[in-house]
Design brief:
This protein is mainly α and 179 residues long. The chain is 81% helix and 0% strand. It starts with a helix and ends in a 5-residue tail after the last helix. The relative contact order is 0.08.
Length: 179
């Protein structure tokens, strides 16, 4: 396992070095994305975030490339339970046009559900329960937006299907299925 992590780390460093030398911004972004993927597989989210940050800072990239980087950054931050930072990254992915927005909205909705459920388990007062319930309503709204979306790209269809499933689970759990 350590040997595999070391190989992924070395590959990530090699991709990052190639990316730094690349002249074309799109090629540079793709190489940094590969570097980030290798660093994630090596178990080094800090290096993965550094590579993703190079993409988000790159001028002249198509919006879908930048949105994909923001989505990936959000996913890395969610995995590290850094919800506030993840929400910021996912909001930036949602602001871009294209299929990435649906995936980012789905990720944010699911993160809100996870956080709200944790808050409900730890709730000591009515105010805590109301705050968690408000967060669940926000998550429900995000999931409903994705579930009701009309995009026909494969990523949008996948996000819509997952959102419908997760929204159904949420509504069943809350005992509030609309007509």
């Amino acid at each position: 396992l350590k040997a595999a992590a070391a190989r992924f780390k070395a590959a990530g460093e090699a991709f990052a070095a190639r990316a730094a030398a690349a002249k074309n911004p799109s090629a540079r972004a793709e190489l940094f994305r590969k570097a980030a993927d290798c660093h994630r597989k090596a178990g080094d989210p800090t290096a993965a975030l550094a590579a993703i940050d190079r993409i988000t800072a790159e001028a002249g990239l198509p919006p879908d490339a930048t949105a994909g980087a923001w989505l990936e950054k959000g996913e890395i931050l969610l995995a590290g339970h850094l919800y506030t930072e993840a929400e910021t990254a996912l909001q930036k992915a949602m602001d871009a046009p294209g299929p990435t927005a649906a995936a980012a909205r789905l990720k944010l909705g699911l993160a809100q559900v996870e956080q709200a459920r944790g808050r409900l388990r730890a709730a000591a007062t009515d105010a805590d329960r109301k705050a968690a319930d408000g967060q669940l309503r926000l998550a429900q709204g995000l999931l409903a937006q994705v579930a009701d979306s009309l995009g026909d790209q494969p990523a949008e269809r996948d996000a819509r299907q997952t959102a419908r499933f997760e929204l159904g689970k949420l509504l069943l759990g809350r005992g509030s299925i609309p007509d």
